Amino acid sequence: MHQVSVGDPQFRSESDSDTHPVNGMNDDMIGEKERRTLLVACCTAAFITPLLSTMANLSLVSIGDEFDQGSHSLGYVNTMFLLSSVIFMVPLAKVGDMIGRRRMFIVGIAITLSGCIIAAISPMYSALLLSRIVMGAGAAAISCTSMSLITDAFPREMRGGAIGLQTMCVYIGLAIGPPLGGLLNDILGWRSLFLIVLPIGILAMFLVSRCPFEIAPDNGGTFDRWGAVLYAVAITFTMMGVINVPEAWAFVSILAGLVFLILFVRSQTVSVSRLLNVGLFRNRMFTGSCLATFMSYVASYSLSFFLALYLQSIGAMSASEAGALMLVQPAIQAVGTPVFGRLSDHMSDKRILPTAGMVLIAAGLAVFMTLGLDMSIYRVIVAMVVVGFGYSMFSAPNTSVIMSSVGPRETGEASAVVSVMRQTGMMVSMGIAMCFISVMMGSTDNLAPDTFGLFVDVMDTTFATCMVLCVVGAVLSMMRGKAQSADA
């Protein structure tokens, strides 16, 4: 296996002492076969997180019944997963750069599978939430390494297509998650959902172990423990405050989190062994693209949470039926994403596709706002189709712009930032949803015919808020300037 230090003038094989030139990882040492193996491994692992997320949504009703939890408490099933992934994302990206991104990728899968086993045997609700924290840490390691591995292994002219394929697999996971989760929930119970992920993770570990190289741009570097503590505390206080608004202590928590975040940023400007190169945000294209990623997930992530509850309660559908209907949006994303990813490789102004995608997502949210107590399957399908096309146009082109706007040594940090923006956006989206549930439903958050009207009001208010944020995101997307690749 070859140990590669990206950006260095040379790298040394672990099997001999010969040195070879490195050109941003796009040299003959990584041939077409190795690239394909790596891409298949990353694409296989890409199924894990969306399956764990969407399958759990279809089991929220069953989980709530078993553990006697209301809709606000059930929001923590996804929120703890997201919070954990954001906390561990940046530190694990740094560790991956030190020990090797390929090794961190394998470790991340192993941690995720451990969390799945804990979830499957959880005797109480708190144990289930603990398992979601473990899964989040593993998902963080997978996310912060897979995109940087693809970016390092593929030349710029092939990158959009490769990222598009990996993103397509994410959307396939999102597509098959609801019907698979609903079916398993109805036949075997919600605990079986977590066991189905085990063979997928094992296959991904096997595939990546066949890649004969290791990418470690900071091999031999040191870890900033103080920075990691500041980052974890900042994220924890901020996000716990966001998801518990309008409680009075939540605003204090948010303020404290922002103070710690400022301290973290200041520490990274002077630390020799920094976790994150905050100088990346001086790049207008990088910053604008990251903000667009954040806003897109704030605008749309709570859709699946609300839709799963809406279809099974007001729509009186079984978990299997709801899952089959929810297949529409991610199926469109799975088909369209690689197409728009390849198209973005040939466009001079790379702002157009992501911006147009965000406009479509906002339009889809407007359609979702027309849902009421008399469910219209037609409106649900139309809304999912519009949002699906929007995300197809946004995801891969926007990610390709981000990863192409940084240098070879910074791809790990950039990948971590992208994942943090995505996961933080998801968590803020859930925070908005949980806030409106608390304010508008209060202690009556158990779904029953007498609370259905309140629940629809909560959905409409959340979707209206998210639609406005999506429009703001579209404006930010168009204002970021034309892409200038760092490795062009």
What do these coordinates show?
The protein has 488 residues and is mostly helical. The chain has 19 helices and four strands. It folds into two domains: 2-223 and 275-478, Growth Hormone, Chain: A, CATH 1.20.1250; 224-274. The chain has helices spanning 32-45, 48-57, 60-67, 71-99, 101-120, 125-153, 156-187, 192-195, 198-209, 225-244, 248-270, 284-300, 302-313, 319-325, 328-345, 352-368, 377-404, 411-440, 452-478, and strands spanning 2-4, 10-13, 19-21, 213-215. A hairpin with a 5-residue loop joins strand 2 and strand 3 (19-21). The longest helix has 32 residues, at 156-187.
Total number of helices: 19
Strand elements, count: 4
Radius of gyration: 22 Å
Which CATH class of the largest domain applies here?
Mainly Alpha
Shape: globular
| CATH topology descriptor of the largest domain | Growth Hormone, Chain: A
The count of domains is: 2
Q: pLDDT average, as an integer?
A: 82
Biggest beta-sheet profile: 4 strands, mixed
Structural class: mainly alpha
Order of helices and strands: EEEHHHHHHHHHEHHHHHHHHHH
Named CATH architecture of the largest domain:
Up-down Bundle
The proportion of residues in beta strands is under 5%
What is the fourth-level CATH superfamily of the largest domain? MFS general substrate transporter like domains
Low-confidence segments, given as residue ranges, are 4-28, 484-488
What percentage of residues falls in helices of 4 or more residues?
over 70%
Distance between the termini: 28 Å
Trace the largest sheet across and list its strands.
Answer: 3-2-1-4
